[in-house]
Amino acid sequence: MTRAQAAKLFDRLAAALPEPRGELDYTNPYTLLVAVVLSAQATDAGVNKATQALFKVADTPQKMLALGEKRLKEFIKTIGLYNTKAKNIIALSRILVEKYDGRVPRDRAALQSLPGVGRKTANVVLNIAFGEPTIAVDTHIFRVCNRTGLAPGRTPHEVEQRLEKIVPPERKRHAHHWLILHGRYVCKARKPDCPACVIRDLCAYKAKTTAEPAKTPAARKTRQSRPRTGKTGATKATKAAKNARA
Ligand code: SF4
Q1: What is the CA(90)–ligand 1 centre distance, in A?
Q2: Which homologous superfamily does the CATH classification assign to the domain defined by 1-215?
Q3: Which of 103, 82, 81, 83 is nearest to 92 (CA)?
Q4: Atom 1 (ligand 1): residue with closest C-alpha?
Q5: Among 73, 145, 147, 190, whose Cα sits 20 to 30 Å from the Cα of 103?
Q6: What is the DSSP letter of 38?
């Protein structure tokens, strides 16, 4: 995709959703970090359900340490991999208290040195909590970038590097949210909703879906007048035949 086409693509996504927001609930950079760590291989809705009660009692690293790993697990046991995630959250909270005065560092290397925090999580925190123009490539963004041809790549890192080059500077702040929401609700993994897609003319995906054929009155009439088949119909017909023979 050319730069001009990419600019058009983001113009359209921006027009459709001028103020995009992520779907994870948080109250400060620390709770955002915890929510993103919990969201690995879990749904945002599932994470929000668990953190609603958790963040009422532990919205700072100090409070999380006071809560302790065992009680933390009680709050997050509905989330996949909760044992490992609880361990990581307690360990990263301890580092934040000991090394960063209880604050989340605005620094990629420092973030990625925390347990359970990879490049994607660091990008999300830098983007949402600190307004940095980073783009975290998750499964939705990876799919959208490859299908559309916006930023094709074999790995999330490759896609991220291409996005760095092709996303217009003024769109970088929100690019992450536009692409993720587009992938989650329109360009879905199993059946993309191409007829309703605002960027379909810019998209290079060859297997675009088409609208279901309209159900004309004639088609409905033909279906209604068709003789009944299948198990129920056959059984009734067989019974009727038997009764007639008796
Ligand atoms: S046209 Fe279809 S495949 Fe292309 S971005 Fe839109 S929904 Fe995805």
Answers
A1: 41
A2: Hypothetical protein; domain 2 (1.10.340.30)
A3: 103
A4: 200
A5: 73
A6: H
